[in-house]
Amino acid sequence: MENNTVYQNLVPNSQVSPVTYEHHSLEEESMKQKKRMRYVVAGAGIFMVATFALCVALMIQNHELARHVHNMQLNTERTLASMAYDAHKAQKSSRHTELAFFNSQLYKFAVPLSSPVKNQQRRGTCWDFATVAYLEQTYRQQGVEAGYMRPEEYLYMSEQAYGVMVIEACHANPTLCNAVGGSDLLLNTTESGYEIWVKYFKVVHDKIVPESVCHYFPTPGNDTVCPELALALPSNPLKFTLNRMKTLYDSNEIKRQMIRRNRTLLWSSKVNNAVYYLPAADANQCESPLVHCPTDKTYGTRCCQAITLPGYSMEGEFEMHGPLTVSGGHAMLMVGFNDMFRTRNGHTGGFILKNSWGSEMSHSLAYWMQEISDYDEAAICPNSKFPLNWEQCTLPFNEKENAKDENGCTTLTCKSSVCEQGSKVAFVNITMSNMDGIWDACFARYRDTDGHKVRSEFCVSQPMGVLAKMFAPHNPKPNNDSLCGFYFFPYDLAHASQTTLGGHWAIDFDLTWHKQSYISNAALYPELDYSYVNASSGIQTTPFFEGPIPFFDVDVDPSDGKTRTYRHSKKRVLQLDDEL
Predict the structure, then answer these.
(1) Which residues of 398-433 are buried (b: 16+ CB within 10 A; e: fewer)?
(2) I need a labelling partner for 467 at 20 to 30 A (CA). Which of 101, 126, 510, 522 fits?
(3) Which region among 99-108, 260-269, 447-456 has the lowest average model confidence (pLDDT)?
(4) DSSP conformational letter for 580
């Protein structure tokens, strides 16, 4: 009791809570906690539902986005396909347009700046000369375009050294060598080869050297000789990069590629023989070596003598005559084409090729392009040994016995049994016979008879090539080594050869010469030696013709007031009073 009294005294009545009050407060607190728990659970449920809804929404959005991306990809693919189709149509249209332009407008084309012609002589190194000719031309063309060279400048490069380097490259990689047809190189010979080797033997791309490093050996057996090559290579400035190679077989595509790239191509083809027939008199049985005469021509007899000559003329025209037979293969530099040029054999259109057989029996590029007259060409590439270029002797022969040809009369030395070998004869005329490919050439000679000179004439019927072997001009005029050396390969022959003998092809190289290769940049590369480049450089001059008769001057003779025609720096050659 005391304790209660004290407690009551200490705690006011209003603050004293009965036991029943304490029990009620705990139950209420528990209910509140449960209520709060329900709120928490409900909130968590709402959060989970919201999260689930958000995830569903995101999934739907991602699905829409994926579908949108997919649609974009499809649209992009359709656009690219449409662009590709349009490009294909444009390319096809461009090809048709180009071909139409080709056929209607651009009937001739030439790439200039070829270096002067060289001569492989009696070695089978045409592939070597053709490759080096291509390198020389691209070097010159790129140098002129970049301002490193003047247009008239050129650089000779060494075929001898290139052959040596290809042999060494072959020995260094025999597997590659055999794969690209170089098995003969393993025998240390450059007799026969391929232009493609410059692509596959990449080691030679900085080992092309100027010609002065080592000159060409014209006789076989010296294929590996180049004494100064090892000395020149460490400081050799010549270097190029060859990125790709494209080979073309169709004639029109070859011409288009030349126009597109404005550069020369490397040409390879079979070379055929030309066969002519001469009637054999009093031959009833066509026993060997006689053959039956072709039935499509009139020969007046059953049996003929077949004469086989090279398939090219003494004026640089490749030709086909008689059955096509192979005499070998040949590589040259293709520099242009002319669809309108007509050869003496009647073939219209063909490729213009820089050969490696020297300047004789050839023409200038301007001639094949029909940019100068025959008279102009005669001042550059007279081809004096070709019978159709012999000039007729119309004046008395006794005035020509000293073989003075200034007046246009061709005096010939006989090299055949039809006349006294070594004797001089005068050319009278030449006409085409009724036999296919046979010409009738007539000559005059004088014999001493009882103190008098008696003139007599005789005629010979032979193909043109045989006539040139039987008679030689006593005083021939040489062709210009700097400008002559180009041949003409008719389309007809290319197509016939492709069908009968095997194909031809033209190779286009994507090749770039480095800046260091040019002597005008020598100051930028003091570690390189340009002395060989300087020693192998030259100047190529081209004459200018303003008229069709370049070497005739018309003047008035003061002695009688009559007009005379004179040859430059020569004696009077013609009197054309009536004509003028």
Answers:
(1) eebeeeebebebbbbbbeeeebeeeebbbbbebeee
(2) 126
(3) 99-108
(4) -
Structure tokens at 46: 């709402």
What pLDDT is stored for residue 352 in this prediction?
98
Residue pair 407/573 in contact (Cβ under 8 Å)? The answer is yes
Q: Following DSSP, what letter does each residue of 410-435 receive, concatenated?
A: PEEEE-STTS-TT-EEEEEEEEE-SS
H helices of 105-158, in order, are: 126-146
Residues 6+ positions from 65 with CB-CB distance below 8 Å: none
Q: In 3-state terms, what secondary structure has residue 565?
A: strand
| Helix/strand/coil (H/E/C) assignment for every residue in 507-519 | EEEEEEECHHHCH
CA 285 – CA 567 distance, rounded (Å): 55
CA nearest neighbour of 199 among 159, 240, 231, 171: 240
**Is the per-residue pLDDT at 388 higher than 50?**
yes
pLDDT in tens, 293-350: 888 777 878 899 999 999 999 999 999 998 889 999 999 999 999 999 999 999 999 9
533-554 residues labelled b (16+ CB within 10 A) or e (exposed)? beebbeeeeeeebeeeebeeee
Instruction: Count Cβ atoms within 10 A of the Cβ of residue 172 and give its class: 0-12 exposed, 13-18 middle, 19 or more buried.
Output: exposed
How far apart are alpha carbons 453 and 189 in whole angstroms? 58
What percentage of the chain carries pLDDT values higher than 90? 57
Backbone angles phi, psi at 76, to 5 degrees: -65, -45
pLDDT of 539 higher than 90: yes
pTM score:
0.77
> Mapped to the 3 state alphabet, what secondary structure does 251-318 carry?
HHHHHHHHHHHCCCEEEEEEEEEEEEEEECCCCCCCCCCEEECCCCCCCCCCEEEEEEEECECCCCEE
Distance between CA atoms of 302 and 282, rounded to whole angstroms?
Answer: 10
